[in-house]
Amino acid sequence: MTTTKAAVKFASAIESLYMGSQPDAAIDEALALPSGAALMWRVLNGCPPNESGRPGGRRQSVDLTGLLRLHAQGLTDGAIARSLGVSRNSVYLWRNKLGLPPNG
């Protein structure tokens, strides 16, 4: 199976589980994907989370769509942080969680 066909197959499987109200972690586990793969798919497709989050959990401080867009443009963690108005550490942590390599 070519890489493109495999990617389409996984995207379709993620979408099916997402539409079945499965949270990101359950989708990753069901498809044996790396942690954060369903989150990345969901963010790239503009879909809200299926889970309400853990009680007492903190609000997500980073605009993931903006982070992905700015990272794709080649900006460093510091430049992304300044653009989004968050700390460089927040960008670093989310970039790692999403499996993105550093720029620069």
Features:
mainly alpha, single chain, 104 residues
Shape: globular
Indicate the mean pLDDT: 81
Number of H/I helices: 6
Radius of gyration: 15 Å
Give the distance, in angstroms, between the N- and C-terminal Cα atoms.
Answer: 33 Å
Q: Structural class, please?
A: mainly alpha
Q: Which series of helices and strands comes N to C?
A: HHHHHH
Largest sheet geometry: none
The level of helicity is: 55-70%
* Strand segment tally: 0
Poorly predicted tracts of residues: 53-57
**Approximate strand percentage:** under 5%
Quick structural gist:
By secondary structure, the chain is an all-alpha fold. 57% of the residues lie in helices and 0% in strands.
Break the fold down into its secondary structure elements and pairings.
Elements (H helix, E strand, L loop, with lengths): L2 H17 L4 H7 L6 H8 L19 H9 L4 H8 L3 H10 L7
Q: How would you describe the overall organization of this protein?
A:
The chain has 104 residues and is mainly alpha-helical. It has six helices and no strands. Helix 5 packs across helix 6. The longest helix is centred in the first third of the chain and has 17 residues. The radius of gyration is 15 Å and the shape is globular. About 5% of the residues have low confidence.
